[in-house]
Amino acid sequence: MRTLYPEISPYNEQLLAVDNTHTLYVEESGNPQGIPVLFVHGGPGGGTSPEQRRFFDPEKYRIVLFDQRGCGKSTPHACLTDNTSQHLVADMEQIRQHLNIDRWMLFGGSWGATLSLLYAQTHPERVSGLMLRGVFLCRPQDLNWLYQEGASRIYPDHWQDYLAPVAEADRGDMLTAYYRLLTSENEIARLSAAKAWSIWEGRCSTLDPKADLVEHYGSAHVALAMARIEAHYFINKGFLDTDQLLRDTDKISHIKTTIVHGRYDMVCPLDQAYELYQQLPEAELHIVRNAGHSVFEPGIVDNLVRATDTFACSLA
């Protein structure tokens, strides 16, 4: 079974002002002359981490990571102003131009897969390949599964902690109730709701419980950005038309695509990856039988590293 490549440090880190409000953290590691690849993190609002550089052979790839608007090292923190899917696509294109990259591979999981698909459908001529993990199509039924009813039946004990910040009378529409809490002027209520929201997602993310992951999701800095930005996006249906990502697959049918998805993904159930695969018959779909949602599940890591090695050979 393949594991992550050894730890590496960036050779270039910078803060890129993309408009009058937002400044994004952008880093490069690996080989400056290598195959350009953009790691597109999840959430939205999840931010990047050093481990994300390690899915790629550093001798073959020019590895670009960035923190999307409002999260990680980007500023202002947890900001919802001018923070939409269309802004993020424009940011990615601005980063590409700023780094003088002609075409790049996109590596995105969960919300990162959503955003990678949207960028590729907007700028197909700039994408050399797609690596998608834990596909999230951001449709009403996909949001309802995690935030209203579905995963609640798999994790009824953890669901009680997710329900706790919301008044019983408001629980018929958890997304709206959480959005109100996360955008309220009450700082204590806002942070309490953010932690409950983020910990719920962390608990659902792995096949086996991972206390360190839940602790990470529950830290104030991570939770506030992730919960506020996710609720903002999801109450607006990701700023997408229903089924938009499936509707526009003809625009990317020529792009080499590999999809990796855990059989027991409780955050983004497998049907989303399968429906995308049915629309992209030339794509590869790898269903990992002993994995949940997290990119760091051993079976997911194995499949992703093998796939990036394969891409490196085909794109060289």
Would you spell out the secondary-structure blueprint of this structure?
Layout: E1 12-17, E2 23-30, E3 35-40, E4 61-66, H1 85-98, E5 104-109, H2 111-122, E6 127-133, H3 140-147, H4 151-154, H5 156-163, H6 174-182, H7 187-204, H8 211-218, H9 220-235, H10 244-247, E7 257-262, H11 271-279, E8 284-288, H12 298-315
Helix pairs in contact: 1-2, 5-7, 6-9, 7-8, 7-9
Instruction: Give me the CATH fold name of the largest domain.
Output: Rossmann fold
Record the strand order, biggest sheet: 1-2-4-3-5-6-7-8
H/I helix tally: 12
% residues in beta strands: 15-25%
Going by CATH, the homologous superfamily of the largest domain would be Alpha/Beta hydrolase fold, catalytic domain
- The H/E string reads EEEEHEHEHHHHHHHHEHEH
Radius of gyration: 18 Å
Question: How many strands appear in the DSSP assignment?
Answer: 8
Task: Write up what this structure looks like.
This protein has helices at 85-98, 111-122, 140-147, 151-154, 156-163, 174-182, 187-204, 211-218, 220-235, 244-247, 271-279, 298-315, and strands spanning 12-17, 23-30, 35-40, 61-66, 104-109, 127-133, 257-262, 284-288. With 316 residues, it is an alpha/beta fold. The chain has an eight-stranded mixed beta sheet with strand order 1-2-4-3-5-6-7-8, sandwiched between helices. Strand 5 (104-109), helix 2 (111-122) and strand 6 form a beta-alpha-beta unit. It is globular and about 55 Å long.
In short:
The protein is an alpha/beta fold and 316 residues long.
